[in-house]
Every structure is written in structure tokens, then in C-alpha cells.
Amino acid sequence: MTHPVRSVSHRPNTAGSPPRHAGQPLKGVRILDAFCCIGGAARGYLDLGAHLTGVDIARQPDYCGHEFIQADAVAFIAEHGHRFHFIHTSPPCQGEGAPTKGSNAARNAAAGRTHPRLIGPARAALETTGRPYVIENVAGSTVRKDLRLCGEMFGLGVIMHRYFECGGGFTITQPPHPRHRGRVRGWRHGVYYDGPYVAAYGNGGGKATVAEMQHAKGIDWSTDHLGLREALPPAYTRFVGAAIPTALDHRKAA
Which of 13, 34, 81, 123 could serve as 129's disulfide partner, Cβ 3.0–4.6 Å? Predict the structure, then answer.
């Protein structure tokens, strides 16, 4: 079911690339943040000066961008995506990763539980916009693995490998993947392991507390446990965002 869409109060200038500002390379760039959750991805782009509009099917009172719209993200991309300079999407990963694989698949079937698979529909909607974009998701997902980011690349307290499919003319160079410094802290099959990273997922078994997730990911505006678990570390999108001006310049020159 498509949720009603509140009108977007700020319309991006799509006539060409916005002007550049020293220290804020995305100043004037309007980014659509689809499936936005609390805005982990948004914060990285905000730090570079971008204007963020978040869209999510669920209410997100902790969203940190400039504007939040409760709506079906895929439908919103299809209808409004062309009004933005760049589109970031983080479709729900539960239908792509561990919750639907192995013994979890049998448990889901017995309980009649299903998880949406929205990467394909999101990709189809993005391709209609004519805008550069990324689709972010987990290792087992169907996103094309154009970019792989890890918390160790940014000195974070989580490993959290995430993959990005780049489209609409957007490209980015893969950075080196440094060796992990140790294990993720927590219980594994009755054995407790210590390590420099926290497990920012699930509950119990030595999983990270709210305060630990905030510190490990670099998120200080929300205390929502589920939101913190699902949020992308802002350092990831600061890295992605640094490549957006080049993509917009190429579009302008084309």
C-alpha cells in the first residue's frame, strides 16, 4: 500500500550543477535519502553541506535531515526522484541477508513471516529518474558490488561491511580494505570473545548497548536501539559524498 505523500516544500534546482563551496563540497546539492531510517546515511552527506530529504514508509521522529516525508520510498522515487541532484537508497536488508537464509528460512516459513525484497523495484524506479544514485545493502543482497566499505577503513568500532551499487553515471574508486584488528566482541556458540569491534545488531549475547553503538558508528542524535542497529555510519556517506561533485560536473558537461 502506498502511503500518502506530503508535498515537498523545497524544490531542487535541476537546471545544472550547483555552485561549489570550499569546505562544503555538496553545498546546494539536494539529495533524496530513500528508506532513510534515522538518517545515518543522511548525516554523512549533511556534513558535506548537502540538503537532505528523507523518505520512509515508517514514521522516523529521529531523522536528522532537513525534511522527512512518510511515504512508500519506491513510489516516491518514481514520482519525485527527478527533482533531486542525487539519490541515496538503503532498501531493507532483512529480505536479502541472514534473516531469510539457512535455518532462518525454515523458521520464517513456519511462522508465516516474510520480508520485502525491494532492491529490484528501487533500481527500476531509480533508472526512470535520470539522476545519479547509489543502492546500499548487505553482502548477501542482489546489489551490484561496485563499492565495498568497512568500518575499519574509517577507524570505527564496527566492521559492518556494506556494498554500494552505483548508477545513473555515478562512479567511485574502491579504497583499500585494511586488515581487521581483531574479532567482534560477543558470545559465539557458548564462547565469549573480546575484540575492538562491537556487534551492532540483535539483542543479548554481548551485543552492543545504545551508548556503544552511538560511539562505534559516530551517531549522537538518536537513542533508538533498532534505528541505531540499522543506521549506516555517517563516515560511509562522507566518503561517497566526496565523489558526487565530479559526477554532477560530468552530467553538466555531457
Answer: 81
Residue type at position 178: P
Please give the pLDDT value at position 98. 52
167 burial (CB, 10 Å; 0-12 / 13-18 / 19+) is buried
Helix locations, the chain, DSSP H: 40-47, 73-80, 103-111, 119-129, 210-217, 225-230, 234-241, 244-253
**What would the grid cell of residue 99 be?**
534473516
**Terminus-to-terminus CA distance in the chain, angstroms?**
38
For residue 28, the one-letter residue type is: G
What residues contact residue 223 under an 8 Å CB cut-off, 6+ apart?
A: 210, 214
Residue 105 predicted with pLDDT over 80: no
Q: Which grid coordinates belong to 131?
A: 539522476
**Nearest residue to 162 via CA among 174, 170, 171:** 174
How many angstroms separate the Cα of 7 from the Cα of each of 124, 128, 158, 199? 23, 20, 37, 38
Q: Which pLDDT tens digit goes with each residue over 36-49?
A: 999 999 999 999 99
